[in-house]
TrEMBL record, chain A:
GO terms for molecular function: cytochrome-c oxidase activity; oxidoreductase activity. This is Cytochrome bo(3) ubiquinol oxidase subunit 3. It is a multi-pass membrane protein. The chain crosses the membrane at residues 35-57, 77-97, 104-123, 143-166, 187-210.
From TrEMBL, chain B:
InterPro entries: Cyt_c_oxase-like_su1_dom (IPR023616), Cyt_c_oxase-like_su1_sf (IPR036927), Cyt_C_Oxase_1 (IPR000883), Cyt_c_Oxase_su1_BS (IPR023615), Cyt_c_ubiqinol_oxidase_su1 (IPR014207). This is Cytochrome bb3 quinol oxidase subunit 1 apoprotein. Belongs to the heme-copper respiratory oxidase family. One of its GO terms (molecular function) is cytochrome bo3 ubiquinol oxidase activity.
Amino acid sequence: MSMTAAVGHAHADPHHIGVVIEHPGPASKRIVTAYGFWVFLLSDIVMFSCFFAAYAVLSGQTAGGPSGAEIFEQRNVAIETVCLLLSSFTCGMASIAADVRNRFWFYFGMAVTCVLGVIFLVIEFREFADLVARGYGPSRSAFLTSFFSLVGCHGLHVSAGVLWLLTMMAQVFAKGFRADVLRRMMCFALFWHALDIIWVGVFSVVYLLGGAP
Amino acid sequence: MLGKLDWSAIPFDQPIPLVAGAVVLVAILAVLIWVVVKGHLPYLWDEWITSVDHKRIGVMYILLASVMLLRGGSDAIMMRIQQAVAYQSQGYLPPEHYNQIFSAHGTIMIFFVAMPFVIGLMNLVVPLQLGVRDVAFPTLNSVGFWLTATGALLVNISLVVGEFARTGWLAFPPLSGLSYSPGVGVDYYAWSLQISGVGTLVAGINLVTTVLKLRTRGMNYLRMPMFCWTTLASNLLIVSAFPILTATLAMLLLDRYLGFHFFTNEAGGNVMMFMNLIWAWGHPEVYILVLPAFGIFSEVVSTFSGKALFGYRSMVLATMAICVVSFMVWLHHFFTMGAGPDVNAIFGIASMIIAIPTGVKIYNWLFTMYGGRIRFATPMLWSVGFMVTFIIGGLTGVLVAVPPADFMLHNSMFLVAHFHNVIIGGVLFGAFAGFEYWFPKAFGFRLDERWGKAAFWFTFTGFYVTFMPLYIAGMLGMTRRLQHYDVAAWRPWMIVAAIGMAVLSIGVICQIMQLVVSIRNREALRDRTGDPWDGRSLEWATSSPPPVFNFAFHPDVRGEDAYWDMKTRAQQQSFEHDVPEYQDIEMPRNSPTGFICAFFASIMGFALIWHIWWMVILGGLGAFATFVVFAWRDHDEYVIPAEEVARIDRINLEERRSLVSMAGAV
């Protein structure tokens, strides 16, 4: 749908005197799909906000267990953050490659994104496994409950993202850069970038604020 | 192998659920056998189960809501009888069964009656009112419906396999935690709401995008029918509130399944966090339900008064004001928590403020009627009945918004009377008004007016006889959810309420009779023009029932009340005879994705409830595979050729021409 709007005289509309911009009609599929996915992402962010709120309420409730400052490894978190932020860049490269229909750079960008996502997940998994092994699992205290849930919820999203990423690569391999595949690719990119934004929140609220002694 | 599931899950010692379950099972089997034997299965599969047509999906939503209304209504009858007889005695329902009944009643009525009813009406009507051919995401729409049906299925399975929650409809911890509710009841509750909640979220995203991005030419925001505005507001609330419910129930489930400490009394968990979170969803939820009802009343009052809606812009403003303020009042559900006078005062004032836009709406409807040529058809009766009833409910609401008064009335029967007053008087009356009003659009024939009016008067009277006594009982100190009681002063009011329930039930029977009689007399009640009520918005511009593509051409809208405007112009300038050039129309193909997805979701939900882990994995893989298969298909649209569009459209145009020429002659 072009962005031209018909300009007409609204003689039938008593509230308008003179000229109003007429609504041009239904939007194109590309716009509708992206818009709907944006609305979904906003709802997903609302869901995360509940876990953030729970963390804010419960972060001091250590019940005799460790506090954030005692268990957070800032070095690992820094590596995780770099991986995720870089993967957002490579995901952007893959999107551009898809737009110009360049298969090589698309696969390359997606593959790097995937590797970076998996590295992030492995580091996170090791952090969790290490904590559980030391007896600091989520049932140790309300603080650990909220920590594992918030960070784990983000991790689950990244895992789903990796699954989606692989499906996207398979789709391009099987179907080429068809219009519907490109629309899905656009949604995937939005999803991946949104996870980055969430991670910036997690990094700041959980690891930076919670890691301070 | 089967987790916690064994034969002890079937309540062989309790005759009531067993008999009820058997009756339902026999009914379902009978319908299934009839469908298969008569050879209707291919028709059902092709035209309904796999349909992605918003009109069909809307009808299925409403059917689901109607069936569940009978289930929730049966619970209500049982409760009213119990309280009428359980004076200084145990009554006929054992406590743990009674607790399940009031929990199931609330859960079912909100999530599986009110929600699907309004979402069904929005699905059916909004694309037609916007002058477009479908919603933004037709296949997802079908997924949403079937996931809602999955939730309803799980709630009903709990009747005979295991138990339902005994915790009330919001499952407050610590009662709903593992230590006090070790059974599967809360798990049934939580998983059915999680699954149907995904369906609701999908419906919300779909309808928000539809209203904002799919409107016909010239359908500017301030020309949209009021129902589209309230749909927008309601679905914005769904999108921003339902994720809170999902997160909260996820936390409760983590507490129950993995020993987390969100809401436990041990290890620093915080019970009041649950109240805050659940009501941050719960209060917007009541506006999610009632805003579409306000939209329906706006359409009905304007149509049956023969006037444009009074104060259209103030109505839009009031709707959006309610949409925003509804997120700022949640704490009034627990003034007694002890947040302190300043917090309580702020939320008390916010709760009173939200009555102002609602009052604006009431005056707008009254002024719309003032000076109009009012026709008291059944939808209009429901609307006028609503205005009277809702004002009472609203006033008692303002009363409990005052924190000191709320301290006295908290958790009393007064509160029960208040929220039934607004939900029955607002949402249910609205749903019935919409049902009567748009039925001819969906099926092509009107409903019988005599039975409709009888249904209205019995329901209206029955409502007052049932719920006004509950206000009094609440004033006399009766708390809610009592399985038995020893106070003599409450007894007469409970008996009156039970009698009221009988009157209400007659209303329901009248409604069923209305459907039966109307189907039998459908030829006499046939609506040939597509415009049986002399309507004002675009849904009446197409035939009844509309063709699958709704409109042969996207209508051109030039002002508010688009169809009224078209009719007026057609009369003034005789009928424009330019024959339009028909074009091929592309429509989305039917897809079983929704049904198959819900099938796997049912398996997964059931397995999660009973801790059958291999089955959980099976269900999850199945659902993912369904989506991949859906994503892999090559042809998602089919073409209706221009000749076919022309043929269908000409039939409708002929009928309309005769109508307009007749009206012109008068």
